[in-house]
Amino acid sequence: MNLQDLLNYQLTTQRGKYVLEYQSRIYSLNYQYGNSLYFRCLKSGCTGSVVAEINDDDDEDAADFIYRYANNDNHSDNCIPDRSDIIMRKAKGYLLDCVNRNRAFGVVDNVIRVFYDQLMLLLNDEFGERFVARFPRFDSIKRTIQRSINEIIGNSPNTMNDLQQIPESLEFFSEDENFVQVFEEYLEDDGTQCCILIVGSNENLRALVDATLVMVDGTFKSNPRPFCTVISGQLVTFGTLVSGVGGEKLFPRLFCPVQRRTILCYVNMIKAIIAISVVRFNINPNVEFIKWRRILIDFEYQLHAALAQMIVMEIALSSNIQVSGCVFHFCDALIANVNKYGGMPSYREHGKFYRFIRYLFALPYVPLPAMREAYYYIRREMWNDADDTIPPFVWQFMSYFEEYWLWSSKLPLSAWNVYD
């Protein structure tokens, strides 16, 4: 986002009519007759109007339109809007336009939040806090944008068969820019026919390829139709960091709804991103053009294995890429299993078990060679194996932690260590 793009944003009415800014007033397009466009003052009750005639002059410096007043004397005394009101209208439309160009099938709340924060920073720097205080709050503008996006794109496909003919409103931003980057089918190991769908703008695809830190996450709640109808389906999001209010924030670049959570699915997905980047940006596929140096992901084994397989193949990816788990997902998994084994009441008492879990939260920050030693030191200090009063859920939780995190054959310690 930048100020010049905001000021140059073309205003429209809620019904999509062209809005003209002329002589400190704003007009909406009433009708067109031949080469003449008839505008009426946008102020309610004002009958002032302007006619814009298309200029046929071949001179490159000539204006596109020749303006003349049709009813200048009938303007109301108070129909000249405050400049800040025009900026406010433009800011709302500009925000919607930015979100529309970075949407998935529907709107991801995080996309709106990032652009909203960036717009607030821009408006605060240029027009001050009093101007920003007049702008609608996030929850209000989010609902407005979601309604507008739904009107633009219509309904998502309901079945896998519907994806064979994706509506143009979903497939393209404009005549010269794709929104659906990849749609192809493949066979799983069990013979099931599945598809890969990757959506996002060319600008976001380029930003993802050029990023050094990439975050990959899967979610079930936001998976669009028809992928949400498949039990094993999820929405995989590739994101990068961008500046926002309070520091850097995660911004989603590509959305990849999938039917399966298998190694083959993820390998084909990453290959598809590489292949479409080669086509879109005319890149030599024989060089390491993807600049990823670190990939943060959750602790899904299949995704870890797929990335490891791609790095070994060295297809457009550097062998020096570091794949590590996200500490947030690590802590979230521990809390989920505390609840699973019945330890949540004890955890909420902020007693011994609470301190034990908090110590485990810090393990990813311990040097890799000392992680197991640090865990067993914490265990010895906190729990006595000969103590018969230790609740059963403590033993169950420690058994889970040691089996899944400490000695797992599928998830090495390096996958969740962030010491470096």
Descriptive key words:
420 residues; alpha+beta; 7-stranded mixed beta sheet; 5-stranded antiparallel beta sheet; 14 helices; 21% strand; elongated
Describe what this molecule looks like in 3D.
- The chain is α+β, with helices and mostly antiparallel strands and 420 residues long.
- Helices cover 39% and strands 21% of the residues.
- It is built from 14 helices and 14 strands.
- It has helices at residues 3-7, 83-100, 109-127, 129-134, 138-153, 168-171, 202-210, 263-281, 301-313, 327-340, 344-348, 352-361, 371-382, 392-406, and strands at 19-22, 25-33, 36-41, 49-54, 65-69, 172-174, 177-178, 180-187, 193-199, 213-219, 234-244, 247-258, 294-297, 322-325.
- The strands form three sheets. It has a seven-stranded mixed beta sheet with strand order 8-9-12-11-10-13-14.
- β6 and β7 form a beta hairpin.
Topology:
Elements: H1 3-7, E1 19-22, E2 25-33, E3 36-41, E4 49-54, E5 65-69, H2 83-100, H3 109-127, H4 129-134, H5 138-153, H6 168-171, E6 172-174, E7 177-178, E8 180-187, E9 193-199, H7 202-210, E10 213-219, E11 234-244, E12 247-258, H8 263-281, E13 294-297, H9 301-313, E14 322-325, H10 327-340, H11 344-348, H12 352-361, H13 371-382, H14 392-406
Parallel strand pairs: 10-13, 13-14
Antiparallel strand pairs: 1-2, 2-3, 3-4, 4-5, 6-7, 8-9, 9-12, 10-11, 11-12
Helix pairs in contact: 2-3, 2-5, 7-8, 8-9, 12-13
Task: Describe this structure in a few short sentences.
The chain has helices spanning 3-7, 83-100, 109-127, 129-134, 138-153, 168-171, 202-210, 263-281, 301-313, 327-340, 344-348, 352-361, 371-382, 392-406, and strands at 19-22, 25-33, 36-41, 49-54, 65-69, 172-174, 177-178, 180-187, 193-199, 213-219, 234-244, 247-258, 294-297, 322-325. With 420 residues, it is an alpha+beta fold.
